[in-house]
Amino acid sequence: MPNYKDSAIFPVQKEDRVLRGVDLALLWAGSAVAVDVWYSGGYLADVGWAAGIAMIVAGSVVGSLIFAAAGLIGSYAGIPSMVSVRGSFGIRGSYLMSFLNYLTLVGWTAWMININASAADAVGRLTFGWEGFGYWIIICGIACTLLALFRAEGWKWFSRATVVALVVMAAAINVVLFSNYSWDFLAAIPAGGMRLSVAFDLALIIPLSWAPLAADYMRFSRSPKGGFFGSFIGQSSVNAWFYATGLACALAFGMLDPTVYVTMVAGISFGIVALFVIWLGTITTTFLDIYSANISLINVMPNLKEWQGTLMTGAAGTLIALLPWLGVFVDFLYMIGAVFVPMFAIVIADYFIVNKRGYAVAELYDPRGRYWFSHGFNLCSMAVWGIGIAIYFSLQSFAPSLGMTLPCFLSTFLIYLLAKKIF
Asked: Which of 134, 294, 375, 405 is 20 to 30 A from residue 264's alpha carbon, by CA?
């Protein structure tokens, strides 16, 4: 077996598993305290308030269950996400998935830095009367990259210090919002005709989109139970809360970003609060993207130093953030679903059902071991993955009213189990 003990992809040792369930709850809550989740909730305005809330809760729970199950592999085996993919797709198969994950996460990094700069610039103009979009991008990119260089112990203390403050400040924004717009007022606004299945799909996709990253952090958990429940509760609860806030904003006053609204209504004091929520919320989300993109890169190039990959990824995301990203956001989410939903349907089915949590961890790193399959690829998994992608796009083209994410996940999951029985 290659000597990867100095590599970030090698299994985490017991003494380095320092995150309790509450730490992971705060870490993943921080990932959901983000402007993009507010914006996504606004896209559900056409389904109406009461139905939108129901779909938000259902989507957040289901998406977070899948996400936490993917991360549980890391808790059991101590391995990062793209190494866990080796067990079902093969060592070289995981390289392809790592490449796709790296591209996606660099895109997420760029988009989050861009939207943070846009929102911070808008609040800055309203509150202080000055503009600085380009400066916001550079400062945020540097801050997120530096935080990604920290490891589990640093993330633990950063999350404890910032996420609690973020929740308090976000709650203050909600008080301003809902003191002016009651439940009855929001429920009386007519729906625009969006199908419930489509709304459910939109509420599901963001928590599920964290599945390719989940094990990168849950591998540092002290116990699988604490890692699973902490991650699930932190992600699902705050995701639902911020989706609902975005939905209320879109229904009440036609804005996707509540921070702009509270700045206009409540003045400079809340403008400063909004600015901190935007800033810290983006940082607590984006450093996760940078770190996991780097881990995907190291999965392919295990001799790459962790700090080198982090700096490369952070710089790339910051530069790309200068491009216009907001207009393609929904299409970007669909792209994520098409690739990673069937992938992790296969990973979860293979680990929990086919192998009964029985991966030989040392052989995941051995090109002569059982996970080399056929020249490094598990052809059965690759074929089912292709079928899953085709199912996703077929649903999108011919039956969009059904939604794409959950039908694709379930069908790929079952097809894979059937294929393993046949072959």
From this structure: 134
